[in-house]
Amino acid sequence: MSNTLAPKYTSLEEIPKASLQRAFYRCNLLVCLLQVSFTFKFGTTDTRYATRSGITLDITYRKEQLIQLAYLLKDNEARFNTAFKADLGRPELEVGALELHGTISECIEAWKNVEKWAKPDSVPFSLNFGVMSPKIYKQPKGVGLVIGPFNYPVLCSIGPLIGAIAAGCPCVVKMSELSPNVSGLFAELWPKYMDLSYTQIVMGAIPETTALLDLQWDHIVFTGSTVVGKIVAAAAAKFLTPTTLELGGQSPVFVDTDMDLRLVTRRILWAKTINSGQSCLAPNHIFVPLSQQEKLVEAFEKTYSDFYPEGAAKSQSFSRIVARSHFDRLKGIIDNTKGDLVCGGETDASQLFIAPTIVKNVKVDDALMKAEIFGPILPIIPVKDYQEAIDYTRAHEHPLAVYAYTNNAALKDKIITETTSGAVDINECVLHIAAPGLPFGGVGQSGSGAHTGKYSFDTFTHHRSSIHNPGWTEFLLGWRYPPYTAKKMKQTASSSPFIPVPRPGLDVARITNSRWLTLKTVSVLAIVATVLATQRHSSFLGGILGSIRDTLRATFRSGKTLDIAFRKTQLIQLAYLFQENEPRFIEAFKTDLGRPELEVGALELHGTIGECVTAWKNLDKWAKPEGVPFDLTFGVMKPTIYKQPKGVALVIGPFNYPILNSIGPLVGAIAAGCPSVLKMSELTPNISSLLTDLWPKYMDIEYTQIVNGAIPETTALLDLQWDHILFTGSSTVGKIVAKAAANYLTPTTLELGGQCPAFFDTDMDLQVATRRLLWGKTINAGQSCTAPNHIFVPVDQQAKLVEAFKKTYAEFYPEGAAKSESISRIVSDNHFNRLKSLIDKTGGEVVCGGDVDASQRFIAPTIVQNVKLDDPLMQGEIFGPILPIIPVKASLKAYFVLGIGLADPEYQDYQEALDYTNAGDNPLALYIYSDNAALKERIIKSTLSGAVDINECMIHMAVPGLPFGGVGQSGSGAYMGKFSYDTFTHHRSSIHNPRWTDMLFGWRYPPYTSSKLKSSASQGASIPIPRPGPGIAEVAGRGWLSRVSPKFISVLVLVTTVLIMQQRSSSMGGILGSNHP
């Protein structure tokens, strides 16, 4: 949670060399065993990326760890109470109710539900794709890092870890140095309860955290301040690591005095004073009508006396401030406020004590309002009306929560609708974090992503799309194969989606009627932007693009985009834009990419129209608030998840699919209510120009805008603040986008590509298989992020496969590839020269194709056999029409590690291919051609990729209900269909607590008597099964650790650490060397 302490170090260069070096070695020693647990396969030298051991895939093993963790907290509750008292002066009731009991409940909820959560999801039946058995597998992302806060070191450190354990992700938890006793107790207890090859506790301060961030992780969860959040985001961007950030903010309270003010003040003062206000969810300030301020103040004075009858200084129900620097900052705020003190104000530096302090008549420019207070000081701001308060809230960064106390339904709806925050509580504060089924997370500067319950599980889980296409479907989809005849063109045209409503017929003059931004204004802006783009004047370019962004932000703040009917109109307009101009787009694609008409229709226009129609049909359902499973304790509070647009978005599209992968995600932004800029690729100028010309004739230009240009324009856009960025392109540019987004803590969706392998087993129909593979490789001349990059085939079956490819090649190109009208061209001379060089340099044997024509940027589909793993063709993603075939060994392998012989009969075939695949970055897709059920299951379980297709290529992108996205270096996040909508939508938790529930929760209010402590203890969850028994030998008995001795593990850790040190020494030397003059 939020920690406004200024960090001692703000960059790597400031940290003393010795401290950083010690921290780096220590962190590597701890991390290496987790990497072994997730990815170690005997016989490989690279533990980080070798084939996974499989131990964390075992649901029973995960459940054992969850129960062990619950017992760790329950068995040692008294010791945790003592540790919290020493670190934070926390009262026992708060430790139990707000830390231990909630975390134990998280363990139990995960234990009860993990089997259901981990079960593959089916998707709604589709007439075209239902026979392909589409499903979504749930697989652990990899090794996680959780960086916890000082203020809730159990709930907000161990809480997210529970999701990692449930998801099967080995994880390091970095505990806060500001809660040393709590952290130290965890470090002591951890090896007695938990499997150290699965989870580890790291102690230390900034050097240790910095050293951890210098390592590559598969997901990072951070809870803390915005300042440190930006450091974490920037470090993650270097490795394209997805992050979940929970950061805090100035959470406002709107008070309507038609309420029972004693009830209101009890709930607000309780929320402000738990943990001495050091809570990211604590109410930061109160808005109240000026005429009602004194009534509220009088109620607060009475409640204050109830809570602290002998004065706050003598109360045993109040925590202390965590550190002297934090104390001094808060005291300075009290000293400098211009408001009038109502209650409290006492301080004691020797005890780090600040009494709960209420200040009235505070102005919005007061010292108390400069930033999140993060302490027990509560300003009351009188306003003329609630609109003034809403306007102030909207003009500032989105808070982590908004609280509204009112019985006025219209006012409640207005506050919910016109504000954006992580959560919104009605007639309550903070309690939404405890309601099962609700996500805990921020939006904008208050955070991104969410955790608790299933949201924690999903945070560490990759949702992997999959299809299994039987051979007989060829008669349905055979029209996709070259040569593209008139008959096939007719078949693909018939597959174009039907638009279910007439075109609204809106032109820009009607769309922008009565608004300041006219078509003439937009045209002038466009001309100026074009001139400036030509001159490449960055400051002016940034200004003009900034004005476009500001126009969209004004649209968002107007509330117009909340209207579902408006969004649906835009979706239908967009569908008609493509349907009515299909011939013009076909011509533009021919000019830019040499794309055949059939591919343009089937792979670009029809799919995009389908996305528009799907969103139009489902939007009312998608946008409807969701309830959560009934809970006996919180059911009366009506926990609800509202769907709200994140804000103003930026979509950066690629050249290779400039409609499907640019407009496709934009459909999600439109459906979600997010005004957006779409940056088109400069490599497809005719397509971009046509879209720009048509846009104001169909679309509301105050809602969505097209920006053209090259690197200067993209750079200028990335210099601006957005509420979400979606990028499709290369990993190199993806890192630039991620780094730019980190400056503003902007969440990103990245779709990046990679070397997509195909595993081939010749027990199936080879002509069906080679047709599907060659089609997947040659559409758009192989310039597809999901195109098969290479094929693995057993060495003794390569000849059969090559023979089948030759027959298929002849079918596709009966007059030769050079004369075919069914092949696209390479997008640019640079790409052409790179691909030609790969053909020239390969050590393999070209068996089909190989012809090139520089004048046409033509490269024939080229199949190369006998390719070795170190061949030039295998040095990166090919991204062109060249398909290497790699013969691999298929015999039982015995592995010898440190003299110990180990053989696993489960890894007999394709091990070389699996090792190579897992040693590289996770691909965007993986293809398996086999009818062997055991082989298919083994490849799926022992690899990680964005998607996995069985006996098919690329088709998963077209299946309704499946996400399109990568994992690791191939991307993060997903889009298509509802996944696009969810990408641009904030899921906002909410509760509405009635008055009478104080008879259930009254024990939470000070003073904390023995009776209240007993009531609090009764709220603790019971653990539903006996404790399995502590100790790593028992806990790890189900995995590969049980087959080797502890001595072997120790030696393995030592050797692995040495290897890591050797691998990282040069880069580490560079980092440490930067400290020298």
Indicate the mean pLDDT. Answer: 87
Overall geometry: globular
The overall strand count is 38
Helix/strand class: alpha/beta
Specify the helix fraction band.
40-55%
Radius of gyration: 30 Å
Strand content: 5-15%
Distance between the termini: 37 Å
Low-confidence stretches: 1-29, 39-52, 507-524, 530-536, 891-908, 1030-1077
The major sheet is characterized as:
10 strands, mixed
How many helices? 36
Strand order of the largest sheet: 1-2-18-36-35-26-27-32-31-28
Structure commentary:
Helix 20 (564-580) packs antiparallel against helix 22. The chain is globular. 55% of the residues are buried. By secondary structure, it is of the alpha/beta class. The strands form seven sheets. Strands 1-2-18-36-35-26-27-32-31-28 form a ten-stranded mixed beta sheet, with helices on both faces. The protein starts with 16 loop residues before the first helix and ends with a helix.
Keywords:
alpha/beta; 1077 residues; disordered N terminus
SSE arrangement:
Elements: H1 17-39, H2 59-75, H3 77-88, H4 92-118, E1 121-122, E2 135-140, E3 144-147, H5 158-167, E4 171-174, H6 180-193, E5 199-202, H7 206-213, E6 219-223, H8 226-238, E7 243-246, E8 252-255, H9 261-273, E9 285-289, H10 293-307, H11 324-336, E10 340-343, E11 347-348, E12 353-354, E13 357-360, E14 377-383, H12 386-395, E15 401-405, H13 409-418, E16 423-426, E17 447-448, H14 454-459, E18 461-468, H15 474-477, H16 486-494, H17 508-511, H18 519-535, H19 538-558, H20 564-580, H21 582-593, H22 597-623, E19 626-627, E20 640-645, E21 649-652, H23 660-672, E22 676-679, H24 685-698, E23 704-707, H25 711-718, E24 724-728, H26 731-744, E25 748-751, E26 757-760, H27 766-778, E27 790-794, H28 798-812, H29 829-841, E28 845-848, E29 852-853, E30 858-859, E31 862-865, E32 882-888, E33 894-897, E34 900-903, H30 911-919, E35 925-929, H31 933-941, E36 947-950, E37 971-972, H32 978-983, E38 985-992, H33 998-1001, H34 1010-1018, H35 1032-1035, H36 1046-1073
Parallel strand pairs: 3-4, 3-6, 4-5, 6-7, 8-9, 8-15, 9-14, 13-14, 15-16, 16-38, 18-36, 21-22, 21-24, 22-23, 24-25, 26-27, 26-35, 27-32, 31-32, 35-36
Antiparallel strand pairs: 1-2, 2-18, 7-17, 10-13, 11-12, 19-20, 20-38, 25-37, 28-31, 29-30, 33-34
Helix pairs in contact: 1-7, 1-36, 2-4, 2-5, 3-4, 3-6, 4-5, 4-34, 8-26, 9-10, 16-22, 18-19, 19-25, 20-22, 20-23, 21-22, 21-24, 22-23, 27-28
